[in-house]
Task: structure prediction
Amino acid sequence: MSFWYNQVPMEENFNSGHLACQGCGATIAMRFALKALGTNTVVVIPACCWTIIDGAFPAHAIKVPLFHTAFETAAVVASGIKSGLRIRGKGDVTVMAWAGDGGTFDIGIQALSGAAERNEDIIYVVYDNEAYMNTGIQRSSATPYGAWTTTTPEKHPEDRPKKNIMEILAAHSIPYQATATIAYPEDFIRKFKKARDIRGTRFIHVLSPCPPGWKIPSDVSVKVSRLAVETRVFPLYEIEDYGEKYTINYWPKGLPVKEYLKIQGRFRHLTEDRIEYIQQFVDRQWEKLVLKHKLSHGTLDNIPKNVIYR
Amino acid sequence: MTTAMKKVLTGNNSVSWGVKLSRVQVISAYPITPQTTIVELLSEMVANGELEAEFIKVESEHSAMSAVIGASAAGARAFTATSAQGLALMHEMLHWAAGARLPIVLANVNRAFGPPWSIWTEQTDSLAQRDTGWIQIYVESNQEALDNVILAYKIAEQVNLPVMIVLEAFVLSHTNEPVEIYPQEMVDEFLPPRENPLYVVEPGNNYAVGSLGGPDVYMEWRYKMQKAMERAVDVIKTEGENFGDHFGRKYGLYEGYMLDDADIVLVSAGAFTSTVKYTVKHYRKETGEKVGVLRLRAFRPFPHDALREALCCRKKVAVLDRNISFGHHGIFYSELKSALYRLKDDKRPPMFGYILGLGGRDITPKDIREIIEDVKTREEIEEDIIWKGVKP
Result:
């Protein structure tokens, strides 16, 4: 067993200045991602919080090239960059599209579906803060059931479950998919390194706490990420072998969903029966995931229960 | 020098050959009639290894334009083609390509917008992209289509702006003509691999392209785009002449036909100009009247100075628009009016704007002859649209 300090590279590909809010999950996520991928990488960013976070011209927070593009085009511009580099003899460069949930679940899903279906040689990361945070917290199809946003006010909060983007991508038969959160850096970095060394479309779903949007204090982003995993709201798992092999990376404690909901102001209005409804939904999703793991491995015994770094 | 080979090609396949000879490295496209045969031949060329390129078969035109934006930003020479609805879907990314100063070349096969559904020719689709920052060149023949793909890269890569080559549906796209295909070495001499890109998105170039530009910096970017467009006027002219020296076919900002001594000038763009030329030639022979033709090639940049010089002091100018700007009038007509405004009153010819041939309605020598006769009867501009061929 090795420990976190040699699993998280010392290499820092992020400058000290950026324009994110305090406690922004997407910023910590980018820092970890670039630690894992290194500098033989280029990044494509559509309209999202990261359009701002990297800085206004001529500032540039990350230490790799960045191409900004329109909202719905991250996956296909990354495909084009990859083709351009490959035909110029630079096919070894990692091309990463880095988009929010709006640019992925909603407006960008067509280009993403196209790129995934063609198995373009890109890493596509969605940092999912579960609403249009950059424009001021409007709901997206990644907004979970019951959540408040500025377009789903407390009198009529979000009334549909979050779109299951991992299953949508699994249906595209791509070589690698994973979920990750900033609460588990070793797992996060392992997955990005693994993704870097696989060819074809790789998709990583990062849960990205947003202090102003989730109405949480800026010092609990990591804690809320951990609770998302421990309550099974956001389990850590991988899908390999072109959508066939499911692997749960960590067996959560199975804390009540309420523990996750109650520390976020966006769920403050929820009544007990709504919380129970969410609990049942989360339980059902978890059971299905466990079955898929069992189908892939023939056992549940190989799911780590204490540590998730291997 | 090896001699050129002659082939009978459609307008669309002439474009494909132009792309091949330009050694394009990344192609991305989505099927749409009447463009499709351009990329069908290109995918064959790529699959056969005749063209060393990557072909990204995307799920929409919006993605086709986005893919070539990525490829061009990564330093490759990139191409796409489309028509009408597809061009309109690309619209957002046309702005992005020009704003990112990428020398992409696009072939647009003019097609009328729906509804009602139409696959036939009309110039409104490309003209509606007027303000996207793309250079636009309208061609008349299949040879000109092939030549101008090569020329387009030569121009685009000097001014760092994308170029749209525009040809008409069916009249050109699906009509066969003998076309001269130059030896590859000859094209390579004229058009070397892409040199000195403004930037390349690749490791080592640690900058952000297209990041937030506040009011303190944004305007200068737009100023530079306009300056590049203004420079493009000279580049199109110079490279059109260089092309002539190298390949034996010269291209200008516009083309004059029986223009030098003409009192009445018919102005048009695209393939139906051949019908205009044919009619004018016969009309002159029969009547001896000095009628001439000015065929517009560059629409953006609009060559104001050259056109002012060409049309100064003529007795009458008739503009033939196969397009319309609803609530205004023919688009070439209104552009030309604004260009000639700077002429003194006694030097500025009266102009008459005809709209004809929308949605692919045939434009016949009889139509042109009637327009000439009609122009002769007019002295003052009484109406801004003279409809030709609308059924009662």
